TrEMBL record:
<protein>
    <recommendedName>
        <fullName>DUF5318 domain-containing protein</fullName>
    </recommendedName>
</protein>
<dbReference type="InterPro" id="IPR035169">
    <property type="entry name" value="DUF5318"/>
</dbReference>
<dbReference type="Pfam" id="PF17249">
    <property type="entry name" value="DUF5318"/>
</dbReference>
């Protein structure tokens, strides 16, 4: 998306946690703990990914994008699909998106990345281009 910025990737943390799980130091019960709310969001607002669940390997993970920001008011803390994110990016100045991967079979879930969207990014970019 055009206004995407401040991208943080959580792949290292995910890999470290999975290493703990594979070695048995962390139980799958502890990491496969998606709440009913998250599972429901995955069903209705999630997008399929190409990544197979690293724990049960039975299905491909679903990505759920959660939005947070003061400007969003009551919509802050809700799950949004890609079309809604694109629309919101043109409506609001700034909000943060947290992408969580979820396995709807075993309930594995982990933060994948976070980033900021919103029209403030466009302005900043325009200013840079004009300099
Ligand atoms: Zn799974």
């Amino acid at each position: 998306m055009r206004t995407q910025r401040q991208v943080v990737d959580y792949a290292l943390r995910r890999r470290a946690l999975l290493a703990e799980v594979y070695s048995g130091r962390v139980g799958t019960m502890e990491v496969c703990d998606a709440s009913p709310y998250l599972l429901r969001a995955a069903k209705f607002h999630g997008e399929p990914s190409e990544v197979t669940c690293p724990v049960c390997r039975k299905e491909q993970l679903t990505l759920v994008s959660w939005v947070y920001g003061d400007e969003l008011k009551h919509a802050s803390g809700s799950a949004r699909n890609p079309e809604e994110l694109a629309r919101m990016a043109g409506l609001f100045e700034e909000f943060t998106v947290y992408v969580v991967e979820v396995c709807r079979t075993c309930s594995w879930n982990h933060l994948v990345r976070s980033y900021v969207l919103g029209t403030r990014g466009l302005r900043a970019r325009r200013r840079t281009a004009a300099e």
